[in-house]
Amino acid sequence: MIRVMIADDHNMFVEGVESILEGIDNIQVVAKCYTGLEVFEKIPSTPVDVILLDINLPGMNGLEVCQKLSKEYPDVKVLALSMHNEESFVTEILKYGAQGYILKNTGKKELINAIEMVNSGQSYFSDEVTETIMKSLVNQRTGGKKSSMLTPKISRREKDVLELIVKEHTTQEIADTLFISLKTVESHRRSLLTKLGVRNTAGLVRVAIEHQLMKPV
C-alpha cells in the first residue's frame, strides 16, 4: 500500500485529488495538509511514502518543505503537483530533492502512474514538463550559457545514457537503443549518480540542466 499525503492550500483541489485516489487498491490517502508547517506537524505520527506537494503553500512554501523533507525524512518521496510549468520552478524543486513534477491539469491515470513510479524510486514528469526541461537544455546549449560550477566529467556513453534517462526511457529501452546489456545500463547509471553527486534520477535531470550535459537536439 502506498501511503500518500496531499499538501495544498486549496480545499476543493485537495478533496478532488482525494476523491480521485479513493478506491485505488494500492494507494491510500493518509493525511491532508493545507500549509507547509502542517506537513511537519503530521508526518512524525503519520507514516508517509509519497507527498503530493504544491509549490505555493502559505508560510513555508513547497520548495522549503521539500528541502526540509530531504534532510529530515529522506525516505519520503516528493511528487510536485503544480500549475506552474516554468523552468525555474521545475529546476528549483528538483534541486531540493523532489522525485517528480506533474501539472494540476493531469488526468487520473497519469496521477496514479506518477505516484507509483515515484514510490518505486523512479522519477516522473508530465509531458509538458519534460518538454520544458528539454527546451531548457537546448537553449542553454545553443545560447552559450555556462554554469558557474565546474562541469562534471562524464564519458560519451554516459552522456548517451543520461540523455535517454532525461527522456524517461526505461532501463530496458536504454539497453535496446544503445545495444548494451541491462547490467551495463545500471553500471552507467550508478557511475552517473556517483560522478554527479546525486541520489536519484531526478537529481540526474537537474544536474543535466545545470551543467548543460545533454547533446544538442
From TrEMBL:
Q: What biological-process GO terms show up in the record?
A: phosphorelay signal transduction system; regulation of DNA-templated transcription
Keywords recorded for this protein, A-Z: DNA-binding, Phosphoprotein, Transcription, Transcription regulation
Response regulatory domain location is 3-119
Q: Which SUPFAM superfamilies match?
A: C-terminal effector domain of the bipartite response regulators, CheY-like
Check the record and name the InterPro entries matching this protein.
CheY-like_superfamily, NreC/VraR/RcsB-like_REC, Sig_transdc_resp-reg_C-effctor, Sig_transdc_resp-reg_receiver, Tscrpt_reg_LuxR_C, WalR-like
Record keyword Phosphoprotein present: yes
Please list the residues that carry the modification 4-aspartylphosphate: D54
Q: Where is the HTH luxR-type domain?
A: 147-212
Is DNA-binding tagged as a keyword?
Answer: yes
Extract the SMART domains matched here.
Answer: HTH_LUXR, REC
Which GO molecular function entries does the Swiss-Prot or TrEMBL record give?
DNA binding
Annotated membrane-spanning segments are: none
Q: What protein name applies here?
A: Response regulator transcription factor
Q: Provide the taxonomic classification.
A: Bacteria, Pseudomonadati, Bacteroidota, Saprospiria, Saprospirales
